[in-house]
Amino acid sequence: MTPPVTATLAIRVNGDPRRVAPGTTLAEVVAELSSAPSGIAAAVNEAVVPRGAWSATALADDDRVEILTAVQGG
Amino acid sequence: MSDDTLTIADRSFHSRLIMGTGGAPSLEVLEQALRLSGTELTTVAMRRINPAARGSVLEVLQRNKIAVLPNTAGCFTAGEAVLTARLAREALGTNWVKLEVVADERTLLPDPIELLEAAETLVDDGFVVLPYTNDDPVLARKLEDVGCAAVMPLGSPIGSGLGIRNPHNFQLIVERAQVPVILDAGAGTASDAALAMELGCAAVMLATAVTRAQQPALMAEAMRHAVDAGRLAHRAGRIPRRFHAEASSPMAGRAELDPEAPAF
């Protein structure tokens, strides 16, 4: 049976399970967590995605997204 | 001192104190300590973004014109460390990385095999790699051989405040290294930082000794002076250690006095 076109995607964002609409981009997921214009990096399935490519990066089912920033340490 | 700059890769620094930012009770306390330390290069860690976080360590560094040095703290494998370094480069716009690959949480000692592999990969990827390493002269040499811009041997375990447990190894590392040797981890108080510099280290990296001191700003100032004093002493060249005393006043030209006829 063909899944309905409205089926959501199951992804993980910083370890938390999320359901998003098909076509959701990495830029949209990052924007929910921060509006900072710099200082943030994102990886999808252990691959760094440059900031300039976030809006062109559509997420897929089972994608694991990590969104990191600098904190006190070292 | 004015011309005695620290050069790592293509950058020069007047301060030889590299600070960490972990352990400070607040960003305000951290900022005051960083200012008094005189540091020009300071580490941060990379962690999942917390939308509820208030203030930013990056803003503190930018405000004080301190260069940011991302670390790979918390990484246990070369793969984790390489990805973390690449994320830091993307987030912070720097290809410098303080490379940490530790073996376990109890000792936080570097895993030499994973460390060397990560260092080689990151150097090949264009990073300026500053590895946190054991106080092992052989490993230090191998890290330099794969292209690390400095080596950062531990004096004692991270956060232990036990100082430099093997000064002899530090001398062996310094003696051979062609890149800056930077004490990393173990400094507990000012004399530890001074000793590192006296042994020929190019710089000292510390965090806990300042951020968890009873008065962080005061200890930061102490560390700044200790690093400067130790550096000057190293350049000045210390006297050899002697078993017996050696008079600093001349024996010649003394007055002839009757030792049996005291004037009192």
Mean pLDDT of chain A: 92
Order of helices and strands of chain A: EEHEEE
Strand content of chain A: 35-45%
Q: Helix amount of chain A, in percent?
A: 10-25%
The biggest beta sheet of chain A is recorded as: 5 strands, mixed
Order of strands, main sheet of chain B, comes to 5-4-3-10-9
Through-space gap between termini of chain B: 50 Å
Bulk shape of chain B: globular
Overall morphology of chain A = globular
> What percent of the residues of chain B sit in helical stretches (DSSP H or I)?
25-40%
The total beta strand count of chain B reads: 10
Write the layout of secondary structure elements.
The complex is a heterodimer of chains A (74) and B (264).
Chain A: E1 9-13, E2 16-20, H1 26-33, E3 40-44, E4 47-49, E5 64-72
Chain B: E1 6-8, E2 11-13, E3 17-19, H1 27-37, E4 41-48, H2 57-63, E5 67-70, H3 78-92, E6 96-99, H4 112-124, E7 128-133, H5 137-145, E8 152-153, H6 167-176, E9 182-184, H7 190-198, E10 203-206, H8 208-211, H9 216-236
Parallel strand pairs in B: 3-4, 3-10, 4-5, 6-7, 7-8, 9-10
Antiparallel strand pairs in B: 1-2
Helix pairs in contact in B: 1-9, 3-4, 5-6, 7-9
Task: Please explain how this structure is put together.
The complex is a heterodimer of chains A (74) and B (264). Chain A is mainly beta and 74 residues long. Chain A contains one helix and five strands, in the order ββαβββ. Chain A is globular. Chain A starts with 8 loop residues before the first strand and ends with a strand. Chain B has helices at 27-37, 57-63, 78-92, 112-124, 137-145, 167-176, 190-198, 208-211, 216-236, and strands spanning 6-8, 11-13, 17-19, 41-48, 67-70, 96-99, 128-133, 152-153, 182-184, 203-206. Chain B is 38% helix and 15% strand. In chain B, the strands form three sheets. In chain B, strands 5-4-3-10-9 form a five-stranded parallel beta sheet. A three-stranded parallel beta sheet of chain B has the order 6-7-8. A two-stranded antiparallel sheet of chain B has the order 1-2. Chain B contains nine helices and ten strands. The chains are: A mainly beta (74), B alpha/beta (264). β5 of chain A pairs antiparallel with β4 (41-48) of chain B, so a sheet runs across the interface.
